[in-house]
Amino acid sequence: xxxxxxxxxxxxxxxxxxxxxxxxxxxxxxxxxxxxxxxxxxxxxxxxxxxxxxxxxxxxxxxxxxxxxxxxxxxxxxxxxxxxxxxxxxxxxxxxxxxxxxxxxxxxxxxxxxxxxxxxxxxxxxxxxxxxxxxxxxxxxxxxxxxxxxx
Length: 151
Fold this sequence. Notes:
The chain is α+β, with helices and mostly antiparallel strands and 151 residues long. It has 2 domains: 7-81; 84-150. The chain has 3 helices and 6 strands, in the order βααβββαββ. It has a 6-stranded mixed beta sheet with strand order 1-6-5-2-3-4. The longest helix is centred in the middle third of the chain and has 38 residues, at 45-82. The protein is elongated and about 65 Å long. It starts with 5 loop residues before the first strand and ends with a strand.
């Protein structure tokens, strides 16, 4: 089956930039809010400490979000450079609400026989899951054990 192979979410450049912008904006406003509350609020000391802890929490979560975006964009870029384009045959599919779950059988490069699972809410994938047939364009890197569907 798919032991050792993981699907990469192909992060679009605009999506990654928007997510970075959101993370940096959250960091900026959390820091600015923390400074304003500490200097000009006139609240008691314990309320200021709570505000500062909340600001630190927002900054920490935003940094984690930023690292996650960079990691997924890096994985996608690495797969583009090292992967090979190929087509995969949809062997089976099920529909769960608005999401299709596909079982894909790629060609057997280097005598590796496997099936891949792909869940997606795009119309084309849901239609293939409902019809239980179709062909998908894939990028696969057998050396690193990564793959992605090209929509």
